Amino acid sequence: MLMVVCDGVSDRPVKQFDSKTPLQAARKPAMDAIARNGISGIMDVIAPGVVPGSDTAHLALFGYNPYEVYTGRGPIEAAGASIPLRKGDVAFRCNFATSGDGAHVTDRRAGRISCGTADLARALSGMKIEDVEVIFKEGSEHRAVLVLRGPGLDHRVSEVDPHSEGEILQSKALSPSAEKTARLLNEFVRMSHETLSDHKVNKDREKQGLPMADIVLPRGAGSVGEIEPMPDRYGLKCAGVAGVTLVKGLCRIVGMDVIDVPGATGGLDTDYMAKAEAALRCLETHDLVFLNVKAPDIAGHDGDFRLKVRVIESVDMMLGRVLKDLHEEVVIALTADHSTPISVKDHSADPVPVTVSGADSRVDSVRKYDEISAAAGALGRIRGTDLLPIMMGMANRSAKFGA
Ligand code: ZN
Ligand code: ZN
Q1: Ligand 2: distance of its center to the CA of 70 in Å?
Q2: What would the mean pLDDT of 317-325 be, rounded to a whole number?
Q3: Contacts of 72 (CB under 8 A, 6+ apart)
Q4: Rounded to whole angstroms, how far apart are CA atoms 285 and 386?
Q5: This model's pTM is above 0.70
Q6: Among 63, 124, 272, 359, which residue's Cβ finds the most Cβ atoms within 10 Å?
Q7: Integer angstrom CA distances of residue 354 from 4, 29, 40, 305, 357
Q8: Element (H, E) at 205
Q9: Residue 25 has pLDDT above 90, yes or no
Q10: For residue 254, how far is its CA from the centre of ligand 1 (angstroms)?
């Protein structure tokens, strides 16, 4: 089985472009071939009217109820950064930022610092605050991950990051059992400023007239709950092919083998063909391969119709490569994790088109993969958590219920 998620590809009609959606405007023979050979429908990835984040949406596509297993983005970022989390850990996603006085933030991204963050992170990681251990690791550019490990922690704390320039917030407990976590988090922020202000990397930046990365702003607190890994839950060996850290982290959390593809950046410059080859290789050794392409979402956030059409055509070439060598027995699903309409420049609650095809699958009258054509198909309107069971049913991988 192969599940292809074109991140944010789903859209709304745009007046200036003939009232078409980018999917309707693009030339995409491979996507249309999948639609022509199978059944299509539209999908509320979480539920009607709910605007999905990429994280909660992917959990739903992997068959989990995000309301049960999702506590915050921190743990997913930590998994993406290859920090193995334990039960009781609280994880945060962080920015290196510029403060100066330790109370205000003047640049939330420290001038999009790209050099020296590993050194800065090493200065913070391994610190002890009371009886709690600090694990800290740099991410791409100004991003980083913080994990607090020790007794009596609770992720229900408010954010430190003010999400704009201005006063740095004090974290507060949102539940009585989170008092300790809030106190330690505030102490960590204070210590990060104390440690980083005098760090050589920042002294050098100061000399060069660059904004210092002299404080860490944590947000998105979460802890890992009990997620039954996909191999146990479905009896499937699963692999994930993705470029972005967030999606890689999600794949790791649900027990997929995450394949590192050189050139798969999660950006507009990603190596589509390398991803196609990687997915094909994984299908030889795994029962379910998940393939995410991030670029359509980026074009949606930019509000750039022409760019989104171009990206869709690149993704289609990748799919053409996949289809060329795809064994005809393999059930393939093509969908999105949410809509990112050009007119909204953010995610929306609009359902996404979905199409599923396999060797002996039913075939409906849908000829094209887009939001409007798919709505007329035989799959009807489903939820994100329905997709994997439908694929398993078509692949004869579902167990009989009853005698
Ligand atoms: Zn997404
Ligand atoms: Zn997005």
Answers
A1: 18
A2: 97
A3: 91, 155, 220, 221, 222, 223
A4: 25
A5: yes
A6: 124
A7: 10, 16, 6, 21, 10
A8: helix 200-207
A9: yes
A10: 17
- Ligand 2: centre distance to CA 300 (Å): 8
Q: What is the pLDDT of residue 246?
A: 86
Ligand 1 center to 171 CA (angstroms): 28
User: Tell me, what amino acid is at 160?
Assistant: V
Give distance in angstroms: CA of 73 to centre of ligand 1.
13
Ligand nearest to the CA of 54: 1
Q: How many CB atoms lie within 10 A of CB 127?
A: 16
Ligand nearest to the CA of 344: 2
From the CA of 175, how far away is ligand 1's center (Å)? 30
Going from the Cα of 301 to the center of ligand 2, the distance in angstroms, rounded, reads: 6
Nearest partner of 126 among 136, 116, 141, judged by Cα: 136
> How far is ligand 1, taken at its centre, from the CA of residue 54, in Å?
4
CA 45 to centroid of ligand 2, rounded, Å: 14
**Distance from the CA of 204 to the center of ligand 2, in angstroms?**
35
Q: Give the tokens for residue 268.
A: 């507009």
Ordered by start, the domain boundaries in the chain are 2-71+226-394, 85-222
Burial degree of 337 (CB within 10 A; 0-12, 13-18, 19+): buried
Span 313-336, mean pLDDT?
97
- Ligand 1 center from residue 347 Cα (angstroms): 8
C-alpha of residue 340 to centroid of ligand 2, in Å? 7
Which candidate, 35, 61, 30, places its Cα nearest to that of 362?
Answer: 35
Residue corresponding to tokens 């068959």: 63
Mean pLDDT, the chain, rounded, equals 95
For residues 143-158, one letter each, b for 16 or more C-beta atoms within 10 angstroms of the residue's C-beta and e for the rest, the string is bbbbbbbbeebbbbbe
pLDDT tens, 50-84?
A: 999 999 999 999 999 999 888 888 998 898 888 98
Structure tokens at 197: 């202000």
Q: Tell me how far the alpha carbon of residue 239 lies from the centroid of ligand 2, in angstroms.
A: 23
Whether the CA torsion 54, 25, 369, 381 is positive or negative: it is positive
> Which fold does the domain 2-71+226-394 belong to in CATH?
Alkaline Phosphatase, subunit A (3.40.720)
222, 178 Cβ separation under 8 angstroms:
no
